[in-house]
Specification:
The protein is built from 4 helices and 2 strands. It has about 100 residues and is mainly alpha-helical. It has one domain. Strand 1 and strand 2 (about 50) form a beta hairpin. Helix 1 packs antiparallel against helix 3.
Length: about 100
Amino acid sequence: MKKLERAKAEAYFKYRTTMIVIYLAIGFLVSYAVVLNAEALSSFRVMGIPFHYYMGAQGAVVTFIVLLFINAIVSDRIDKKFGFNPEYVDKADHSTVESSKGSE
């Protein structure tokens, strides 16, 4: 597998770290911020249920599942942008690994 230039690797990890921080912020908002502001949010209703109750019972879980899918899609795009694609792994790397396993 080819080595990555330092500047490109730093940009990749900066981008990934930014995305993780965004996901954590969204997770915080849908779990803790809703609970901390439950009284103010009780005037809103989702399917006839107070918003804070819905988010605690179902909304936060649905949001986390949606975030998992978004993360998978975004991660694939980031990997392709920076040249990380498992389809392009050198076959020579696999053959050396397989030959070393066979000699054990």
